[in-house]
Structure formats: C-alpha cells, structure tokens
C-alpha cells in the first residue's frame, strides 16, 4: 500500500525522469500539500470510512442534506445514483461515504485520478472519462452493469468531467451525460436516484478554462484544498422506477436522468403563499334522503341519462333540485378539504350553482350521491349574462377565437367523486358516461373545456413542470390567465422540456419530486387520453389560490374506443351531427 498521496500512485514502474515529472506535477496541482496533511495526520492505512471522515474534518466542511440522502437511498435492490459534478472530486468522497452507510455494497464509477487516494480504492470502479478509446473503460463499464444486475448500488457522475461555466447562459452547467447512465438506470427492476450537489469551484478555475479547457485538470487538487470551511449542500430526489424512464434510447434516458438531477437543485425552490387563515366551519349535516328521492322522482324523464348496476346519472338545475344541489355542495366541500382546497364553509357553493347545470350520480338503493360535475352551457349563459356568466372568466381572459366564444361549448368544473369511490372505476366512468349521454341529447355541444385543479399538496416544482410540459405554447394566444403562476422554470429544465415533446417523461420528473409518489392528476390523465389540448395555467384566487390547468376536448374527435364507451349507442350519430 502506498504511503503517500501522489500521482505516482497511478504510474506502474516509473522511470527516474517520470518520477521527477510527477514530483513537479504534485507541486503544481496542490497534491504535495494534500500529502503533507496526509502525513501530518497519520492517515495512511485508515479505513475508507475513517479516511473520508478525516478529509471532511480537515477541510471543516459543513454538509447539508446528508440525512435526507440516506433516507431516500433504497435499502435493498438494484439502484443507480447519479449526481452532477461541480467540484471534480470531493463530492465523490462525500456521497460515497454517506451512501455506503445505507448500502455497504456501493461501488462508484470514478475518474482513475482518484486512485491517488489508495485508502479509498475499495469504493471505486475506475474509468478514464477523458479518453473514450481507453481499453480499460470497457471492462469497467461491464463491471458496473454486472454490479447493478446483481442487485447492488452504484454511484455515477455521468458528465465524466467537472462542471464548466456556460458563457452564453452565465451559469455553471454540466457537460452532456454519458449514455451509460441510461443503460444502467434502465435495467429491469432498477431504481434511479437523482442527486444534485450545490456549489462551484473558484473563479480562477473558470477563468483558466477560457484559456485552455484541459488546464483545469491541473487545478483540481488545489480546488479540493480551497473548499476549507465551505458549505456543501446535497439535494436528493425520490427514487424513480426504471419503468418511468420511458425514453426510446439510452442517450435520451441519459438526458432525462440529467434533468432529474437538475430538478433537485436547491436553488430552484418556491414556497406556496400561506393559506388564508380561515376557521374551518363544521361540515353541514347531510340532506334528507327522502327529500333527495322526491326531487329525483320529480325530474323530467329525459333528465335521466344513464343506469348502471345500482347507479343512476341525472342532470338538473338548482331550481329543480335545491336539496340535491345542497348535498352536492356539501360533498364537494368534504372532498376539496382533503386536497387543501376547501372554502372552509359548511358547504362549497357560489352564485354559479344557480345558473349551471348539475350532473350527478346517485345510488338507487340508498339515494347517496357519489359524484358530480357542474356544467356551464356557454351559449345560454353568455346570451343571458355575457362573459361574466362563465365561472372561468374570473380566471382567464378568453379571446374572441377561443372555442367558447366561437361555438356552443360546455364548461366543466367542480367535479368530485366521494372518497369511498375514488379508487373505483365506477365513479369517474359514470361521470363521463353521463356527459356522453348529455351531449347526445344536445349534440350542438362539441367541445368541453374546464380546468384541472392541481392541489397545493403538489410541490410547486411539479406544478411548474406540468404547466411547461402539457401546455400547447402555440395556443396560449387564445386565452391568458389573469393570475399566472410566477415561478420560473429552472433554465436547464426549460431547455430540456422545450427540446422535444416531454409528456412521456413527465411522470418520471414528478416521481422524483413528490414524497408520496403523486403522478399527473388523474383527471388530467383522463383528458389526455381523450386528446385534450392544454391552454394555460391560472391561479384561482377565489378557490384558495389553487392552480388550475385550462384545457379543452374536441369530444367528437375523441378516439373511437372512448367515444363509444362514453356516448354509448348514439356515439356515431353525435359524431356526424351537423349544425343547421
């Protein structure tokens, strides 16, 4: 075992001339100073753990986020952990030490230059990122793949080189990530854990790279030493299952892995405004079931839309069924409070309940209402009240070429399914089956539009990514929100999202951010299947400042399978309807 820190540790059978050259490089690169500390503090022969701890101690580093990293590392099974490479060395020591406490099976794919620290050699699988043709690289990569396939953990810095200064963007950025991270993270049953280490090297380091890029290598040793007293923050996402890395090839998977790392950047954060301090009033008592049954029996026969098993779907105006609408409003408040969106009142109601059409599902046996939609028939509402008759006109400025200004449309909102049915197929299916039956009766309505509420239980980063990825940015001129979501996308993520359609990668991004594994809201997924066009995201200030994603669905052009499912036997007649 070598008893000093030197580049000489990397050289086999050096000549006298080589030894002199190495000695000179050790002086220039600051490695001789490292060796002095190594000798002074008797670090020779320490375990890799003790050696790593000693480096952190000698540099008086203040580490943040280590416990969070350890909490998020899967305790077993294959996992690939990838990080940006801001410093060029010390981050590898810090991350390896922390992760190996959870996963003693950890290996690190590292630059062979770290071989100067012989005490750490047990952590590493060495590679030469500066020479793609180095014959030793291929066996190293095969070793990594085998290590992961055997159910172990691997830490990798896929850029292969230390981060550099992007003069155009005026920021420190990563090089493109090697496709090997895509191949590794895409292994069956593998988890991918994205990490971002905040920080940068000295200004001199970035100045010298302007002179000649490779000169930076001579400063990496000094950069380790000048970190004395620095605060280094580690930010970790949640594990992403390999099935969510849905890119077509390993290069594209590597792009996604890089974006997942940047999504954890501690500098890209936003705190939701504090909720209005409201005293939550007790939920109103349930309405009388007999009165509900009586109102249903009085509805005209044509307002019955669907029967399925023990459920019926109807539509009604508040004037026809005040008790039913009150019960709907009561149930809405219960459901919305679960998502931090409630009004705080005993029931969730407003003036639009009186003018909108209510579509609802009722259990025929006990007259329980299990879900509802509030529908605004835009032609009727605007004829009577103008744009102000539309609830969403409070959130969005609808231009003359937006669909609700050009033709009869249905504005959908205030949808809910009671908690007992939220995991059931029946609730959402019956709402849409009812909508399909309704438009078959009124075929002039070709377009549905409305918002998907995105609960503030989502991390703001997720909301911003949903907005960026789903919205058709060419369509935003048709409509603009009065209150936008003022949270800029991380510049690296902006570049990633705008480079191509990222709808298939969105779930992976959310998986890395959301603590409970939340994906795209279920209603947004439903609309996507129907070919929805997403227009804008606005903040609903009358609904606890909840973000709302505006979309429209050209219902006749919904895929045949879904149109048949929701519109039933009349689907073809509805599709072929021509307004007179």
From TrEMBL:
Swiss-Prot/TrEMBL catalytic activity: a (3R)-hydroxyacyl-[ACP] + L-ornithine = a lyso-ornithine lipid + holo-[ACP] + H(+)
Gene3D superfamilies: 3.40.630.30
The UniProt record lists the keyword Transcription: no
Keyword Ligase annotated: no
The protein's Enzyme Commission number: 2.3.2.30
This protein's pathway: Lipid metabolism
Family: Belongs to the acetyltransferase family. OlsB subfamily.
UniProt-recorded name of the protein: L-ornithine N(alpha)-acyltransferase
Biological source species: Agaribacter flavus
């Amino acid at each position: 075992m070598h008893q000093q820190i030197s580049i000489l540790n990397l050289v086999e059978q050096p000549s006298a001339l080589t030894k002199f050259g190495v000695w000179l490089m050790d002086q220039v690169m600051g490695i001789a100073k490292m060796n002095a500390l190594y000798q002074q503090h008797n670090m020779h022969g320490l375990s890799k753990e003790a050696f790593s701890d000693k480096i952190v101690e000698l540099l008086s580093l203040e580490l943040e986020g280590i416990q969070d990293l350890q909490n998020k590392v899967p305790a077993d099974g294959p996992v690939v952990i990838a990080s940006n490479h801001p410093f060029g060395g010390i981050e590898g020591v810090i991350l390896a030490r922390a992760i190996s406490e959870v996963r003693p099976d950890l290996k690190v794919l590292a630059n062979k230059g770290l071989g100067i620290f012989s005490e750490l050699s047990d952590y590493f699988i060495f590679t030469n990122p500066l020479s793609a043709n180095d014959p030793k690289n291929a066996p190293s990569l095969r070793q990594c793949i085998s290590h992961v396939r055997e159910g172990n953990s691997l830490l990798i810095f896929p850029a292969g080189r230390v981060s550099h200064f992007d003069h155009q963007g005026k920021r420190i950025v990563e090089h493109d990530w090697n496709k090997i991270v895509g191949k590794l993270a895409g292994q069956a049953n593998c988890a991918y854990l994205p990490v971002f280490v905040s920080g940068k090297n000295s200004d001199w380091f970035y100045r010298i790279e302007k002179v000649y890029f490779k000169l930076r290598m001579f400063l990496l040793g000094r950069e380790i030493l000048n970190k004395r007293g620095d605060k280094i923050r580690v930010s970790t996402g949640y594990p992403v299952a390999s099935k969510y890395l849905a890119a077509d090839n390993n290069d594209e998977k590597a792009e996604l892995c890089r974006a997942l790392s940047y999504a954890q950047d501690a500098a890209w954060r936003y705190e939701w405004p504090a909720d209005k301090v409201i005293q939550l009033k007790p939920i109103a008592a349930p309405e009388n079931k007999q009165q509900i049954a009586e109102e249903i029996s009085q509805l005209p026969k044509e307002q019955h839309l669907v029967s399925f098993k023990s459920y019926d779907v109807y539509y009604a105006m508040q004037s026809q069924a005040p008790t039913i609408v009150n019960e709907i409003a009561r149930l809405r408040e219960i459901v919305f409070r679960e998502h931090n969106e409630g009004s705080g009142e005993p029931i969730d109601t407003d003036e639009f309940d009186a003018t909108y059409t209510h579509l609802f599902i009722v259990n025929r046996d006990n007259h329980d209402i299990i879900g509802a939609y509030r529908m605004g028939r835009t032609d009727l509402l605007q004829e009577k009240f103008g744009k102000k008759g539309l609830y969403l006109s409070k959130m969005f400025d609808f231009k003359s070429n937006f669909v609700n200004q050009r033709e009869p449309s249905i504005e959908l909102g205030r949808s809910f399914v009671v908690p007992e049915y939220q995991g059931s197929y029946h609730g959402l299916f019956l709402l849409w089956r009812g909508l399909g039956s309704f438009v078959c009766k009124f075929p002039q309505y070709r377009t549905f539009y409305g918002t998907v509420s995105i609960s503030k239980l989502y991390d703001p980063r997720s909301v911003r990514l949903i907005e960026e990825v789903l919205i058709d940015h060419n369509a935003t001129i048709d409509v603009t929100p009065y209150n936008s979501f003022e949270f800029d996308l991380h510049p690296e993520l902006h570049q990633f999202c705008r480079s191509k359609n990222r709808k298939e990668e969105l779930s992976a991004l959310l998986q890395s951010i959301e603590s409970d594994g939340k994906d795209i809201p279920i209603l947004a997924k439903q609309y996507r299947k129907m070919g929805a066009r997403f227009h804008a995201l606005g903040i609903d200030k009358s609904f606890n400042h909840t973000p709302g994603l505006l979309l429209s669905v050209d219902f006749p052009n919904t895929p045949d399978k879904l149109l048949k499912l929701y519109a039933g036997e009349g689907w073809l007649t509805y599709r072929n309807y021509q307004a007179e």
